[in-house]
C-alpha cells in the first residue's frame, strides 16, 4: 500500500471510532490497493496449485517409468539366464582354507571365464595353469555358472599351507 496512507495495511479499519470513513487517508486508493493485492494472492494460489499438480504428475510418471525399467531389467535377466555363456571346465574339489575356498569358489561351479581364458580359446588345463602362474598374488576375475546363474568371483592365486596356488581341482568339460 502507498506509504502516504499512514501505515494502513490489509487489515486496519477504514472507519473511525464512530463508524465514519477516515478522513486522514485516501479511501479509494487504499481499497484499490487491497483489491489488487487480494487478486495477486489468488493468482499466486492458483499458480502454486498448478505447480503442485504438475509435480505430482511428474513424480507419478517417474515412478511408472522406474517400475517399467525394473520389469524390463528383470525380463532381460531372465532371457540372459536362458542364454548362459559356454562353460569349458568344472570345479570338482575345493580345499577348506585355500585361496579358492576364501574367494567363494564352490564344488560344481562351471567355469565360463578364468582370467583371459574362455570357451573360445581354451585348449587344455595348461591354459589355466599358465594364467594362475602369471597371476600369483594378483586378483583374477573368474566367472562361473552356479545353479543356473552367472556368478563373478575374485580369486587371488597365492602360496598357502596346501599344495598349488589355488587349492581346488578343475576338470575340463567334455563337449
From TrEMBL:
Gene3D superfamilies the record matches: 2.30.42.10, 6.10.140.1710
A Pfam family recorded for this sequence: PDZ_6
Subunit text: Interacts with PSMC3. Part of a transient complex (modulator) containing PSMD9, PSMC6 and PSMC3 formed during the assembly of the 26S proteasome.
Classification via SUPFAM superfamilies: PDZ domain-like (SSF50156)
Protein name, UniProt field: 26S proteasome non-ATPase regulatory subunit 9
Family the UniProt entry places it in: Belongs to the proteasome subunit p27 family.
GO CC annotations on file: cytoplasm; nucleus
Keywords: Chaperone
GO biological process: proteasome regulatory particle assembly
Residue ranges occupied by any PDZ domain in the UniProt entry: 56-148
